[in-house]
Design goal:
Radius of gyration: 37 Å
Strand content: 5-15%
Oligomer: single chain
């Protein structure tokens, strides 16, 4: 969220694109799913506009032609449309931290209402989810919902039920995919918060995206490239404006010349018309004939 003038806040959306390093048998679990070559795209925009604007960076990174793509996300509805529009066959993975957050809320709510759960209940349940999949965990939550009045269980079952295909973490890990969106959280800090959320800052909405574009260029290590492109674009815009002004002046001169030509033609025709229509002086032929 970025602070705006007037005391309001607005959501900055960010997508991070990276390459997943191939798994190595001798590597540790964490190292086997490392990502590299990150690039960022952040904008203050609604979901539809953000999907359109992000197309440039997505095309630049070759997402459409990649052999396999996975999308680690927090499960928001608009993200499903985002993935569908850019790579409908992407493997969709629910960020494990968001799944863990729903389990943690159940434990917190149980404590607040005086309903005790085993001390290691959360860690055991998350271990089951991470290494054995969601089936046993969901069975346990259904069983628990019939015996404990904890609204957070209903919320978790509803949330997980819509995203069940995205929670097969053992399969995803075996394939070498990351199951956490930590690099997106880091991107929000590096790209947006480090520059737009300093002490006392409140931004005009129209100034947010230009600054985010500069931050993207800097964090993507493309500053020189983007700066050169911007200078070239400005040069082309100046030439286009100069050509437009030249065409306007040319059109004005041509119009003025046409008016002068028409005026001269009228001046050359008007005396002849007046000479032909002028009345004859003296007596007419009839008057002379009849002695008038």
């Amino acid at each position: 969220m970025v602070p705006l003038r007037g005391g309001t806040w607005a959501e900055v959306k960010t997508v991070v694109i990276a390459e997943v390093l191939p798994s190595q048998p001798e590597s540790t679990e964490q190292a086997s799913r490392r990502t590299t070559n990150h690039s960022y795209f952040s904008r203050l925009a609604d979901a539809t506009m953000f999907a359109d604007l992000a197309s440039v960076e997505i095309a630049r990174r070759g997402i459409e032609s990649a052999e396999q793509v996975c999308a680690v996300q927090d499960g928001a509805e608009w993200l499903q449309g985002f993935v569908q529009s850019h790579r409908h066959d992407a493997i969709r993975i629910l960020d494990f931290a968001h799944a863990a957050e729903y389990v943690g809320k159940i434990h917190e709510q149980a404590q607040q209402t005086g309903q005790r759960l085993p001390a290691r209940w959360v860690s055991v349940l998350l271990h089951q989810l991470k290494y054995h999949g969601p089936v046993r965990m969901l069975e346990h939550l259904h069983w628990l919902s019939q015996r404990r009045d904890i609204p957070a269980i209903t919320d978790a079952l509803r949330y997980f039920g819509k995203r069940l295909p995205q929670m097969h973490y053992p399969q995803f890990q075996a394939q070498g995919w990351p199951i956490g969106s930590g690099m997106v959280e880091s991107a929000n800090k590096v790209v947006m918060q480090a520059r737009l959320k300093r002490a006392g800052m409140h931004w005009e909405p129209s100034n947010v995206n230009p600054m985010l574009a500069l931050r993207d260029a800097l964090c993507n290590q493309r500053w020189a490239e983007v700066w050169h492109q911007q200078q070239q674009r400005q040069k082309e815009d100046r030439l286009a404006r100069r050509e437009q002004r030249s065409q306007q002046r040319r059109a004005q001169l041509e119009h003025a010349l046409e008016e002068q030509v028409i005026h001269l033609l009228l001046l050359s025709v008007c005396p002849k018309i007046k000479a032909q229509s002028a009345p004859r002086k003296g007596r007419t032929e009839g008057q002379r004939r009849w002695g008038a």
